[in-house]
Structures are given as C-alpha cells and as structure tokens.
Amino acid sequence: MDTRTALIIQTLVDADRDLVVTRPTLVAEKYQVMAQGLQPYLRGTALIFYRDLSRYQDSQASILHGTGTEQVQLYGDVHLENVGVTFDLSGALLDVIDFDATVRGPFGWEVRRSALALRVALSLGGITESLLDSVVAQFGHSYATFIDEQNQSQPPERVTVREQSPTAGRIITDLLVDGRKRNEQREELSQYTQVKDGVRLFLRNDDLVELEAPWRSDLELMLAQYRASRHAGRGEDSNFRILDAVRKLHSGVASLPNLRFWVMVQGSPLPDTTEPDSGVWLLEFKEERDPPIPIGWLGRGPIGSNGERVYSGTLALLGSATSEADLGYVTWGGVSFQVRRVLRGRRDLDVAKLSERIASARYGNADLSDLATTLGRLVASGHARSGQASAIADVLTASDGTGDAFVTKLVQAVAIDQQRLERDLALFHSALAIRGPLLGARSN
Q1: At 166, phi and psi to the nearest 5?
Q2: What sign does the dihedral 353-358-363-368 (CA atoms) show?
Q3: Measured in Å, how far apart are the chain's first and last C-alpha atoms?
Q4: Cα gap 421→357, rounded to integer Å
Q5: What pLDDT does 61 receive?
Q6: With 80 as the cut, is the pLDDT of residue 57 above it?
Q7: How far apart are CA 165 and CA 350, in angstroms?
Q8: What pLDDT was estimated at residue 218?
Q9: CA–CA distance, 167 with 170 (Å, rounded to integer)
Q10: Does the pTM of the predicted model rise above 0.85?
Q11: At what angle do helices 129-152 and 404-435 cross, to 10 degrees?
Q12: What is the structure's pLDDT at 202?
C-alpha cells in the first residue's frame, strides 16, 4: 500500500475508532456516502485536509500567518452545504448553518479550505478551469476587500444578506426565497410528523426510528439542562412539554454516525393565529465530537465540552445577534450535544442542485462571481469580528502592499488542493475495495 493511502486510512480510522466499535454499521454507511463523489468526499475529510496543511513539504507548505492572526474564531469547514438560510427576528438571512467544526485558529487555514470547497462544488457543474480560477480569485478579492473595510471602520460589522440585499446575487436570492416559503409553511411538521388519534406524533420510517433506552427516559432531564444554556433564555415551563421523540438517522456526511435525537414539544399557541399546531415545535439533540482541527495542534487544551465549544463558537460567528434563538447544549451520559430547532426552512446550498443549474445555464458566470463575493464577505466578517482585522489585513498585503499576490497564491494552491482531493478519492475507493467497508478497522 502506498504511503498516501495509508495516511488516509489511518486518519479516518483513528478519528472513528470508538464509533467503529459502538456503531460499525453507521461508520460503514459514512464511508459509503463519502465514496459517492468529490463533494461528499470533501465533506468527510476535513481532518485530512488540515492534517495535510501541517505536513506539506512542497510549494504548498506556505500558510497565511502573522502576529495577531493566530486566534480568530474559525467556522471550521465552510463548504457550500454548510452555508444556507437561517432566521432572526427580521426574517430569513444567509449564514453558515453548521458550526460543528468551529474552533479558534489561524485565519489562513479557513481561507484555503473555503476556497477549495467553493472550487470543488462549482467544478461539478462542468465549468472550465479558467472560470474556476476566476471564481476562486473573486472569493479571495472579496475576503481581502472586506477585511480592509473592517480595518478602516471599527467596530467590525456583521454580514447580513437578505432577499432584498442588492449584493445577494441570484443564487443566494433563490435560496433565501425557497427557505422563507418553507419556513412560513412549517414544512418540518408536514414532512416529519402526522396527526394520529388527535395527537401529533413523529412519523416512523427508515430515517426516523424509535428512541431507545436510556435516552428516552432521560429526555425530561436533558431538556431541563438544555434550557439553562438556551440562547433566548429558559422560556416558560409550559412551552416545553414533550409530545414525542425519535432517533434521526442518515443525516450529514462527517457527522453521519453521530447520535441525533428529535424531540417534539408542545408550547403555547402563537398569538394572532387559529392554527392548532402553532405551539408545536421540534428540537434536535445532535452529538458533537472533536473538531477536525485538533485543538492540541494550536497549543491549547480542551475548552469545556464539544457542545459548549460549538455553542460559544456559533454565538461568536452568527451573522445576526437574534438568530438561532433556541440554540443550546447539553452534556449527558458522557456525550456532548448541540441543541437547536429543526426547521425545513433552514435550506443549504445543495451542491447537486447547484451543479445542475450551472450545467443547464440557469446560472451564469456573473451569478458564480456574486456567490464567491458573498461567501468571501461572510467568512471575512466572522474573522474580523472575532480577531484583529488590522493584523489580518497586514498579512494579506505583506508581499506586495495590495493583496494581489495573496489572491494569486490562493488560486494556485486551491487548484493543486483539488487535484490532490481527486487523487485521494480514487485511493479511497481502492482502499474500500481492498480492506472492506470499515477500511480494515475491527468492530469487536
């Protein structure tokens, strides 16, 4: 076996070793999903990407870094399917919607990862290499420009992109419109629940199964602990009466084997409505594991539980101070959980749909440029607010005083990163074929 294949196997198996023993079927499913294409493989291999950044010996060994830039709050993994629609008191807005990988670290790691994720997603639409390079360059310019703007006008701003935002672009506007409509229709109730004998319950199917003991019997206590950390406060006891609960399967890629519990609670009906189910809402308890960027690499020890890490990182990076009102966390039975509302309106930038629309010419070059601009501003906003915009700006302009050299190097590095990712996917296929669905790891 060549050394690169061995590194891929070792990295994945080491990260999943306890799950291989306790949930081997789900780990095998995760690897099967990762093998389906470049986008799911990207999603499942953030740890390999960040490990590579620490071991390159070639021209890719240069990572943006500088005094004062070591500890910004990283989103952790800004691939396009972690970006989407969320909601605050003013309605729908664009933001990162999955902060599982958030941790404090050097901004350059995230710029590189985000640019790679953008390039990979758009490449699936069949666009040319030159256009891919152009879009990545636009992402880099947008990031650098926003950092410079925030350096000039303190305090740093939150990027709040809505349907009416003139800079949103068609791709983001279409996504926001779709998410708002689904949210207004409360699709999570029609998609995942049914009324049976006058009582609303979760559906039971391949994705939603009975919640096993001891979790079901502990839900009341877990809910009470969650309310102590809830972003919008504890709320009234009358709004947290449990109606039903299930275990959610087959969600995510990297997090596919993680525990997910969906809990239906009954609260007070919304004001000014005759809708009988207006007081019914759904919560997700999602297991949070170690981030793909090990904190030990950054010279720091653990910071509370992973649930607490995700909670505090999310609040630091949210594009609106009033979004994710129901966000919280719980540590129970030795497991860290993030808790938040289940919303069908929380739509992500589905890469398969996006690539189809690019291939069919529904979205053109200008739309892709707008997407890159928005994504660059979004990432830069989080970094500027959680770090020192002036220090980041100094690093970006260190080579030539303009930031153009930063963009050129980013385009070159990300093109090579994608080639490496494509080769790795082929090696991963071979490893699964030779070593089996768990990559040779033993489940007992």
Answers
A1: -65, -20
A2: positive
A3: 24
A4: 24
A5: 55
A6: no
A7: 21
A8: 96
A9: 9
A10: yes
A11: 130
A12: 97
Across 214-222, average pLDDT: 95
3-class DSSP state of 422: helix
Q: What distance in Å separates the CA atoms of residue 306 and residue 312, rounded to the nearest whole number?
A: 10
> pLDDT for 72-94, tens place per residue?
999 999 999 999 999 999 999 99
Closest listed residue to residue 231, CA positions, set 86, 128, 31: 86
Average the pLDDT over each of 116-125, 161-170, 300-309 and give the range with the smallest value.
300-309
Give all strands (DSSP E) within 142-257, no chain letters: 193-196, 199-202, 208-210, 241-248
The predicted structure's pLDDT at residue 18: 94
The helices-and-strands tally (H runs, E runs) of the chain is: 14, 12
| Percent of the chain surpassing pLDDT 90 | 82
- What's the full length of the chain, in residues? 444
Is the CB of residue 229 less than 8 Å from the CB of residue 251?
no
Long-range Cβ contact pairs of 299-304 (< 8 A, separation 24 or more): 300/104
List Cα–Cα distances, 24 to 16, 98, 126, 149, in angstroms. 9, 25, 36, 49
Which pLDDT band, with edges at 50, 70 and 90, does 272 fall under? low
Instruction: Say if strands 103-105 and 328-332 run parallel, antiparallel, or are unpaired.
Output: unpaired
Q: Is the dihedral of CA 252, 255, 258, 263 positive or negative?
A: negative
